[in-house]
Amino acid sequence: MLSTKARKLNPALLKQARFDNEPEWLTNLRDEAWKQVDKLTLPVFDKVDYHSWPLLDFTETEEQPTGDVTSLLDPTENYHFVSVGKKTIKNDLSDDLKSKGIILTDMKTAIRDHSETLSKYLFQKAVKYKENRLTAVNAALMNGGTFLYVPDNVDIKDPINLMAVQDSRVKENFVNHTLIVAGANSHFSVLQRVSTIGEQTNPAHVTVEIIAEDSSYVKFSALDTLAKNTYAYYNRRGYLESSARIDWTMGVLNDGHTVADFDSDLMGDGSHTEMQTVALSTGKQVQGLDTQVTNYGRHSEGNILQRGVLLDSSTLIFNGVGKIIHGAHGAKAQQENRVLMLSPKAHGDANPILLIDENDVIAGHAASVGQINKKQLYYLMSRGLSKKVAKRLVVRGFLGVVLRDIPVADVREQMVEMMERKLSNEQGTE
């Protein structure tokens, strides 16, 4: 097994990833991206050496999954769209939403039926395939995903729920791409859950592009629970036009090694983003999470909030970058990165960076890495709670500032349950 840095990809993978009868523009995009794969460098995640990970260990002879996967899913969960591997098993958008011009479909169908619309957005604004080697690989080898389009002036009351499942019952490539386009003055929420079935060792590449056109508002929440044998790369990006807003709330609760880019480009005047992330690292897990907001527009505002908890011998690195481009008069950039250590063997770091190229701005940051508050523990234990339960309550309070922004109560509970599971497995806790 070659490292991510050294691995040479077989051109057969490009042919294998293509959809049936895909349009010429997409084939050309894949080909151009493929030409860049060996020329571009890997993205840098400060203080995380992931080059030995098999992130590009794609199988060249995919196995065909067998068996009914629908029985593995919780029937009580109200998802509008569910995919397992490259197969769509549920696409249930109400007639009322369809009548408003909303499109929700798998990427293969979207490319067939909405090719002209996709060609304007896919790898054109939020994510550029020439950024680094991983973005080029993702553009070339995209083999599944979801397309959500909400037209101008459409307001959706309830969240659109998406689920993407990596099928690791077999060796299969999972290069999943979600494209969300918010028309001008549209308002809606999206919830995405990414998980794994099976125990094969596989890489997972998960990309999300959100294009927020003028005065639109998107609330995007994610619950990531990929398996221990999955090596994951996440790339979630926002492109915001004038007076647009995207609120991100992401729970990174994978069991395997993870690196992630969570970025927003505030292109338009008055655009605004809130980027909030919670993460737990356990065992010998390594996670490097980079969040960046770049202010291009005048009076744009971007805020970053990252909170993480470390157990056992795990590693969690938060890198936050607030960047204000020359000409972004009146821009605001604030960030807060905090890491809570529950084990002396864990390694955590929070690195806030401000890159300011304009005078008339407001910018600031805060960062902390520390042990659990002993006074809080003592108070809870004095009320009869065990040390283990007291720790869990302190952690829940520490992460609660982000959890409360998850728009669906059931999903908040799922996230809490996942955290409880990780915490209950902590080594050496009594």
TrEMBL record:
Q: Which residues form the signal peptide?
A: none
Q: Name all SUF system FeS cluster assembly SufBD N-terminal domain ranges.
A: 87-161
Organism expressing this protein natively: Lentilactobacillus hilgardii (Lactobacillus hilgardii)
Quote the protein name from its UniProt record: Fe-S cluster assembly protein SufD
PANTHER family per record: FES CLUSTER ASSEMBLY PROTEIN SUF, UPF0051 PROTEIN ABCI8, CHLOROPLASTIC-RELATED
What does the similarity note say?
Belongs to the iron-sulfur cluster assembly SufBD family.
What does the entry give for GO biological process? iron-sulfur cluster assembly
Q: Where is the SUF system FeS cluster assembly SufBD core domain?
A: 172-398
